[in-house]
Amino acid sequence: MRAGGLPILTYHAFDTSGSVTATDPAWFAETLSALTRAGFQAVDLASWIARGRPVVERGYALTIDDGLQSIFEVADVVARHRATATVFLVTDRIGGDNAWQGQPADVPRGPLLSWSELESLEPLGFRFAAHGRTHVPLDRCDDRQLDDELRGARNAIEQRLGRPCPLFAYPYGRATPRIRQAARRHFAAAFGTRLDTANHEQDLHQVSRIDAYYLRSRRVLDRLVTGRLQGWLRMRRTLREGRGAMTYPFSWRLA
Ligand SMILES: [Zn+2]
Fold first, then answer.
1. What is this structure's pTM?
2. Which of 24, 36, 195, 217 is 20 to 30 A from 228, alpha carbon to alpha carbon?
3. How far apart (Å, rounded) are the C-alpha atoms in residues 216 and 24?
């Protein structure tokens, strides 16, 4: 990680279940308070991309994958900090649930936001982006289905919410060169699960993020707010890459 990288934090569910994909709403509130106390400000991800990914002193970005209703547990926290959070939506499942095929058994099932609930979150600082139509791992799609997953999700969001949809997050973080090439046709930028801060040197269709799973301890949060996260992230990356073929059961929690 290089100096000046933007920490783009990735969340999924907000509850006290202790699941690997869940964040305690109280800890989320403490995380934003710690960042604000340290002088950090949330940046709007789409505008940061549109501005060419500039270095932002004491900036961070919030992303939330899947669009679960538990976002309401933290909506007031986001609003209070005048933050924006980008929510990556699974458009065929909006108003349904996250029990899609391939969802690991130990990820709690939960309801997803409806279109009208999405609109109610906009004034609080939430922005919406695409995470595929069905959350299928894109490396299992042929070219036609791949295009349909990307284009269909973007069109649904643009038509229902009446706003452009320039951003995409890969389901399960799976982004082969073929998938990235397809993402390039439909989106200004796409986000994976490589554990790093984000900077303008990265592939615009493989922008790094930091899963909230790694920010569960006070010690790591302290590293983030004091600008000492880099060495720690490098060490975690080495551990993940060292798992080699063992990474898949682990990697879904980072998607
Ligand atoms: Zn997801």
1. 0.93
2. 24
3. 9
